[in-house]
Each structure stands twice: as structure tokens, then as C-alpha cells.
Write a structure and sequence with these properties.
By secondary structure, this protein is mainly alpha-helical. Helix content is 88%, strand content 0%. It is extended.
Length: 104
């Protein structure tokens, strides 16, 4: 029983924040690729400075924290809104992929 408690404590305190950090850094890198590719004529992914990615990730974490801390229901509503947007785009992407496959 003691090992289970120690394992759970270590998992919650190390793995979960680490996975959230990785997801945030990936989001920040994608967002910076959009901004850098539209601002420069010829930009490669290697041209993006690491500090810009880290700054964007930090900003994203702060925004999510403020949304969740502001009101208890606002975080849930934002999550439902994002899920609704994802679900509404899914049929369009499915049709687009079928069209792409049919033209090949």
C-alpha cells in the first residue's frame, strides 16, 4: 500500500505537469510558425528563436490560468466552446480528405 501511495504521489507531481509543459511548448511552436511564416517571405522553422517559443508558451499558461481562476464556470464554458469548434470542423475535414482521396 505504501508503494502505491508513493507511486501516485510521484506520478501526479512529475508526469502530469511535464506532459502539460510539452503540450504547451508544441502549441507555442505551431503558433510561432504561423506568425513567422506570415511576417517573413522565406522563413524556415529553424529561424524561430527559442525565446519566442518559450515566451508564447508562458503566455498561454498564464491565459489558461487566468481563465480557470477568474470564475469556476468560465473554464468549463471555454472547454465546451473549443470542443464545439473541433466537432464542427470534423465533418469538413472528413469531406476534404474524401475529396483528396477521390482525386488521386
Amino acid at each position: 500500500m505504501r508503494r502505491l501511495i508513493i507511486f501516485s504521489f510521484l506520478f501526479i507531481n512529475s508526469s502530469l505537469p511535464g506532459s502539460n509543459a510539452v503540450v504547451t511548448l508544441i502549441f507555442a511552436e505551431y503558433l510561432n510558425r504561423i506568425f513567422w511564416s506570415t511576417s517573413l517571405a522565406e522563413a524556415s522553422p529553424d529561424d524561430i528563436p527559442r525565446w519566442a517559443i518559450k515566451l508564447t508558451a508562458t503566455g498561454a499558461v498564464i491565459i489558461v490560468t487566468v481563465v480557470c481562476v477568474a470564475t469556476r464556470k468560465l473554464g468549463t464554458r471555454v472547454a465546451i466552446g473549443f470542443t464545439s469548434v473541433k466537432v464542427s470542423f470534423t465533418p469538413d475535414l472528413y469531406d476534404l480528405s474524401l475529396t483528396f482521396i477521390a482525386t488521386r
